[in-house]
Amino acid sequence: MSGQSETPHSELSAQAERRGGRRSAGILISGAGGEVGHGLIRALSEAGHTEIVAIDLREIDPELRALCRETFAGDICDQGLIGRLNAMFEFTEIYHLAALLSTRSEFIPETAHDVNVGGMINMLRLAVDQARSHGRRVRFIYPSSIAVYGMPDLKTKRSVGAVKEDQYLTPTTMYGCNKLYAEHLGRYYARHYRQLAEDRVHDLLDFRCVRYPGLISAETLPSGGTSDFAPEMIHAGAARTPYRCFVREDTRIPFMTMGDAIDATLALAQADESRLTQCVYNLGAFAPTAAELADMTRRFFPDADITFAPDTARQGIVDTWPEDVDCSAAASDWDFKPSHTLESAMRDVLVPRISERYRAG
Ligand code: AKB
Is ligand 1 within 6 A of the CB of residue 145? Predict the structure, then answer.
């Protein structure tokens, strides 16, 4: 994979020269073209930020590009690109979203490791290099996932209900292993980085992490994840296309709307540090079974054609994810409170917006 800047290199040098060699202030978002990136760029832009620097493997949509100071089509594993970002910008905040999701990662686990772990190391290294050079701490926001959990069996999954951040951390997927290790890397870079080096500089990073449940967006459809059955089912209902759900009807995992996930991510980023008692926080809003999701979809789209055809391997992954997550730490440390139940999410956000999307073609 090659890292190619959308703006030609000569033009970037010319821009740097015009700025008198000075670096521009920036908020960096990796994986910016993905589902979360779309929402995050819009929310940051609405909050008045004009210094967004977005990077994604694919070219960023023109509509999003207009909200950014600079966009790059490139690979976070490309050291040359990371070096250019380091030379051009002063980042005080980094949202590292780029990742290969759980289903996709099981087909190419080594590549997933390169992207999910190697990419994380590159971004953390960029963050500490930046902090050392401009003298301010860099806030590093990292979305992890319920995939870090590994429930040993269905009986345990059903009996324990909502799990806390430090329970059942034995993931069975490459993506889950990568996310769990990346959480530890963030904590290490924030608290122990180069702890034996004589020239160690303390406190370069402010690392904050959310563990997302399955996310449901009205604007985009996910790809490569294993929680995708929920958004796929609802979008198929609106599009009036038949949907064969790849998990059993009794499958239960937590979800939230994309809007609530973005709000929570920004709330954690802005939270008063003195209130934070941990680096990593669970997030979730509702935890329906796949059958309950199907019933809710049929309630709003009465002719939705949903059948269940479980895929044994993908089912096996979802069965290791908890039925629900305990979000009490996020609630007490930074007032996390999702604004939607499944019903209100469907009624007020998902159904109106998704319907409009499919009406518009
Ligand atoms: C996936 O299904 O891989 C993701 C996740 C739960 O992190 N949506």
Answer: yes
Q: Is the pLDDT of residue 361 over 70?
A: no
Question: How remote is the CA of residue 176 from the centroid of ligand 1, in Å?
Answer: 9
Q: How confident is the model at residue 6 (pLDDT cuts 50, 70, 90)?
A: very low
Q: Which numbered atom of ligand 1 lies nearest the CA of 228?
A: 2
Task: Give 103-144 pLDDT, tens digit per residue.
Answer: 999 999 999 999 999 999 999 999 999 999 999 999 999 999
| Interval between CA 223 and ligand 1 midpoint (Å) | 9
Domain regions of the chain by residue span: 99-217+255-286+322-341
CATH number of 99-217+255-286+322-341: 3.40.50.720
- d(CA 239, CA 189) in angstroms, rounded, equals 45
pTM: 0.93
